[in-house]
Specification:
alpha+beta, Thiol Ester Dehydrase, Chain A
């Protein structure tokens, strides 16, 4: 049966993410749908990014180390937290920084993650001739599980357009202090674990074998594929990852896609890597496009011994294409057995 449109009715109202001038400090967005971690979600994430993190692959190992099976890959967890926060940043033009990303708890398959996003700072950018007005929104992202146990609590800064291309808001917050209260207790998440159960073949590089300044050039590259599928999988609604028009003529690959590939390459180089417990910084140096091939180098910046293994402060620099264009500079902290 044909469907007719009553022209006397009001036009449809489009429900989309806010423009910069729609935001105010203290505003909280708490309606992103919660998501339950499942084996299917884990498998789909692994198929796109590649995952050789033993703790997330081996239920017997996960049980021996953490006390229960189904350890959730840290990259899946932060991808979901960021994706849930994009209800605020559907119109995002760029992400400028992440601060204070430290795991307070390691989720497992069966846990349900819920994220709230609070606006904690706003600063309009200086106008540029021939460019529409934009502003920076500093956001605090808090992710808890089904028992309201804290999983992640971190900050990100997104650039958003103004609805009025020549508008002025007067927002001029300073961002230097944002994230200053973040915890740096990177070992907290593993205090109840039995790290001695993370057994390794004798030939595998261990924490005790690492030295500050060690450079590791990783062999081989990885293809960036299924970019919009990863965005959908992780609830990321930022238009630039789905709509070429919003991306200025081509879709942009979600930054977490690049980070996930970098972590997969790191785990290949260091099979003794137990998990990532936090980030120092993450700078996206250039856009990534689907079908790029990514290669990375890894450096050791600091080492903190623990009773078993220790915390390795690592730096991954990722390059794209045959000309090795730098696209990511990621400094993170991992437990290495």
């Amino acid at each position: 049966m044909a469907v007719s449109i009553d022209e006397r009715r009001q036009p449809l109202r489009y429900v989309e993410g806010p423009y910069f001038e729609d935001l105010s400090v203290g505003q909280v967005f708490d309606y992103a749908p919660p998501i339950t971690l499942t084996d299917g979600l884990t498998a789909a994430h692994r198929a796109i990014l590649g995952d050789r993190l033993a703790l997330a692959l081996d239920n017997e190992l996960a049980t021996a180390v953490t006390g229960q099976p189904g350890f959730a890959h840290p990259g899946l967890v932060w991808d979901l937290a960021i994706g849930q926060s994009t209800i605020v940043t559907q119109r995002v033009k760029a992400n400028l920084f992440y601060r204070g990303l430290v795991f307070h708890r390691a989720p497992h398959v069966g846990d349900t993650l819920r994220t709230t996003t609070e606006v904690v700072g706003l600063r309009q950018n200086q106008p540029r001739v021939g460019r529409p007005a934009t502003g920076l929104a500093a956001l605090r992202i808090t992710t808890v599980d089904q028992q309201d146990r804290l999983v992640l609590d971190f900050w990100r800064c997104a650039m958003l357009p103004l609805r009025d291309p020549s508008g002025t808001t007067g927002h001029a917050d300073e961002f230097d202090h944002i994230g200053a209260e973040a915890t740096t207790d990177f070992g907290a998440v593993s205090r109840q674990w039995t790290l001695a159960a993370f057994e390794l073949p004798a030939r595998v590089t261990r924490f005790a074998d690492l030295e500050v300044g060690d450079p590791v050039e990783l062999a081989g590259g990885d293809l960036v594929s299924n970019a919009p599928e990863l965005a959908r999988l992780t609830l990321n609604v930022a238009a630039v990852h789905h709509d070429a028009t919003a991306g200025g003529g081509e879709r942009l690959v979600y930054g977490g896609h690049t980070i996930g590939i970098a972590l997969g390459q790191c785990a290949r180089a260091l099979p003794s890597l137990v998990t990532v417990v936090g980030w120092h910084s993450c700078d996206h140096l250039a856009p990534v496009r689907e079908w790029d091939t990514l290669r990375s180098s890894l450096g050791v910046e600091a080492l903190q011994p623990m009773t078993v293994g220790g915390l390795a402060h690592l730096r991954s620099v990722v390059f794209a294409g045959a000309d090795r264009t730098p696209i990511l500079d990621w400094r993170f902290v991992a437990i290495v057995a």
